[in-house]
Design a protein that fits this description.
10 helices; 331 residues; Beta-lactamase; 5-stranded antiparallel β-sheet; 9 strands; 31% helix; two-stranded antiparallel sheet
Length: 331
């Protein structure tokens, strides 16, 4: 904070028994607290993946069955081969809707879904990796049709409400005074902020549109830790499904990093595996967002870590440095 790297930060750690510690830091003239609502961006993927895996637990979905079984509109042009596993591991080959297109056209949920359903895989699904947010609409629509609810209703009833994630939603406008403005990339303007909130409420983007609080993320993180002595917290997934979400799914695949160098793809089911050099055990899984937030679960170490800030394209390093300090403090 002193260096001015980030405008503000809230972060916390929780174990399976619910014991937690939290911290808050803010720059001059700004104010946040544990009740502040942040844009979660792509942390949404981890939340949606957890809800999607509930259908797998119930035997209503198979990760390797083509999604055309649930979404007949996918038939043809190679789309019929795409499975939930492909979407969760970013190997579907389907085209993504660019951020620029989202800004320019501001499509609602149904229009975005139509665009994705009409897409054609650029390669045989499962053979290459390319990060994709729009393909997650196939998962959200499958959830909606299987539950006979709208996607936000299904997410609420099946996951966020049972876990007490009261402030996690696609539309936080009823709590405007608690929303933390995202800084940078032309987002400081109040009119732009209002247009963004209105768009996200209509778009209901399963790949990156949720808002939420530190408390909400810690509740989810706790629910994904192995049960320990005295743990009476709610659980929404079997341990088998949690282990599968956190398992390295893409061994042998490589991609080009930001510096152009080839690197191993470290991808779980909807969650990312830690990058080389990051702290934590082999069992850890995580997801960050473009606004600087991160949720981290380490079953072996027995804790979950949540970090939220509000800078567009925030650097990854601050969250990882704080996390490293937490591991060191725990011995």
């Amino acid at each position: 904070m002193a260096a001015g790297t980030l405008p503000c930060v809230v972060f916390g750690v929780v174990d399976a028994a619910g014991r937690s510690s939290r911290g808050v830091a803010c720059g001059p003239g700004r104010s946040v607290d544990e009740r502040s609502i942040f844009f979660l961006a792509s942390i949404t993927k981890g939340i949606v993946a957890t809800a999607f895996m509930q259908f797998v637990d119930e035997g209503r979905l198979d990760l390797h069955t083509p999604l055309v079984r649930y979404l007949p509109e996918l038939d043809g042009h190679g789309r019929e081969a795409v499975t939930a596993w492909h979407v969760l591991t970013h190997t579907s080959g389907l085209p993504d809707i660019s951020l620029e297109a989202l800004r320019r056209e501001r499509p609602g949920y149904q229009r975005s879904l139509e665009i994705v359903l009409a897409g054609r895989p650029a390669w045989q699904p499962g053979t290459r990796y390319e990060y994709n947010s729009s393909a997650w609409l196939l998962l959200s629509e499958t959830m909606a049709r299987l539950s006979q609810l709208t996607f936000p209703e299904a997410l609420t009833r099946r996951l966020t409400r049972p876990l007490g994630m009261a402030d996690t939603s696609f539309d936080p406008r009823g709590q405007r005074d608690r929303i933390v403005t995202v800084r940078g990339s032309r987002l400081d303007n109040r009119l732009v902020q209002e247009l963004l909130l209105r768009f996200l409420s209509r778009a209901q983007l399963p790949g990156g549109g949720l808002f939420g609080t530190l408390e909400d993320l810690l509740r989810l993180g706790r629910a994904l830790l192995p049960c320990g002595p005295g743990d009476s917290g709610p659980r929404v997934l079997s341990q088998r499904s949690i282990d599968e979400m956190g398992r390295q799914q893409t061994r042998g695949m490589t991609t080009r990093g930001p510096d152009g160098a080839e690197q191993e793809v470290r991808q779980g089911l909807g969650w990312r595996k830690p990058q080389a050099g990051w702290p934590g055990s082999d069992s850890a899984f995580t997801h960050g967002g473009i606004s600087g937030g991160r949720l981290w679960i380490d079953p072996q170490a027995g804790f979950a870590f949540a970090f939220l800030t509000n800078l567009w394209q925030a650097p990854i390093e601050p969250a990882i440095e704080v996390l490293g300090d937490i591991y060191r403090s725990r011995g």
